[in-house]
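Let us work through a complete example step by step.
Step 1: write down the sequence.
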Amino acid sequence: MPTWLYMLIPWAALAAGAVATTIRTPTAAVSSALQHLAAGVVFAAAATEVLPDLQHQGSVGAIVIGGGLGLITMFAVKGLGRRLSGAWSLVILIAIDIFIDGIVLGIGFAAGAKQGALLLVALTLEILFLGLTAAEEMYKALRSRLLVIGLIAIGGALLPLGALLGGPVHQLPSFFQATAFAFALIALLYLVTEELLVEAHHKPDSPLITSMFFVGFVGLLALESAV
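Step 2: predict the structure and record it as C-alpha cells.
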C-alpha cells in the first residue's frame, strides 16, 4: 500500500478530534491525560524506532546536521507562533505542525513497515489531540463549527503531502538517510518535551494523569513486542 494512504488514519483522527470538541469540549483533566498518553507513545516511538536506526547507520556529521535542522525547524515554528496572532495564525501553525508530522511519518515508513506502523500509532494520538485543542481555540475566534471543522480537515491534507516528501528517503545515500532520521528524532522529542508535556502541565495534575505518560510508553513497547 502506498505510504500516503496510511495518512488517512491520522487525517481521520484529526477531523474526529475537531468534531468531538465542537460538540463537547473535553475537561481539563481529560485533556491533560490525553496529552500525557500521547507524549508517552511518541517518546517510546522515538526511542525504539528512530534512535536505534540512527545509532547503527548515522555518522557524526549526519547526526549533527540532521539534529540541528530539526531543532532549527521546531524553534522556527515556535517563533512564528509568537509573532502571529488571531485565529488565522493558529490555522497556519497547525498546518505547519501537520506537514512536519507527515514528513516524519514518511521518513518512518522509509525505514521499514514496522517502524512506520508504530510511528503511525504514536502520531495519530498526537494528531487526535491536536484536532481537539485546535478546534477549541479556533471556535472561540471564528464561532462557526462547520468552518472550524472544514479548516482543520483541509489542513489534514498536508499529512500525505509531507509523507510524499519524506517517503523517498530510503532511496538516498546512507548519509542523507541518517540526516533525515536525526531530523525526525529531534522533531519527535521536541514535540514531547516542548509541546505535549508543557501544555499538559498547565492543567490540573494528579498521579493518575501523570501515570498516563507511562501507560502510553509501556503500551507502545508492548505493541512493538507483539508485532
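Step 3: interpret the result. Residues 220 and 226 are 10 Å apart (CA to CA).
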